[in-house]
Amino acid sequence: IELEPVKLLSTEDHLEHALAIERRRIRLGYEQVFQNLMQESNKEGDYYTFEEKDAVSTDLTHVQSIELVQPPHANHHGNTFGGQIMAWMETVASISASRLCRSYPVLKSVNMFKFWGPSLVGDRLVFNAIVNNTFQNSVEVGVRVEAFNCEEWIKDQARHINSAFLIFKTVNDKGELFTFPRIKP
């Protein structure tokens, strides 16, 4: 179906249209970043000649953290601040990535961050992070967040409230990008 062009009548219409174009450009940029990462992982070279025995097991990168949501972590309705959850997610993902590079990784981007449901004051939040893949100079860490209130904790009935993929890079003392080892899922 061919759509008619949008008629921009006011200054506000022009501004909204320009913002929509920019959002689209950014979304398409994410696709290009993903394609670049995939091409980077398929390049030939010393990095990609690791034998399977030289690969690092992802089991070594698993990190779990538990946080108790307290009043300072929540708004006046008792819902946990999204930024607080993001900060906790970055911390646990950073620890996971650091188990590969034995250094302090730097957050490069956050992809597919989703709020699946709320958490409240008094909930216990369980953060699970593990390295999903390594690329030549970056590493992707997947984080899943589950919430439990007191009853759910006793019954082991988790509520999946957040997920995200965090991409990290690391530089050495000379400012050069660190090359991550291959991983074995």
Automatic annotation (TrEMBL):
Keywords: Cytoplasm, Fatty acid metabolism, Hydrolase, Lipid metabolism, Repeat, Serine esterase. This is Acyl-coenzyme A thioesterase 12. One of its GO terms (molecular function) is acetyl-CoA hydrolase activity. GO terms for biological process: acetyl-CoA metabolic process; fatty acid metabolic process. Residues 59-174 form the HotDog ACOT-type domain. InterPro entries: Cytosol_ACT (IPR040170), HOTDOG_ACOT (IPR033120), HotDog_dom_sf (IPR029069), Thioestr_dom (IPR006683). It comes from Fulmarus glacialis (Northern fulmar). One of its GO terms (cellular component) is cytosol. Pathway: Lipid metabolism; fatty acid metabolism. It is found in: Cytoplasm. It catalyses: butanoyl-CoA + H2O = butanoate + CoA + H(+).
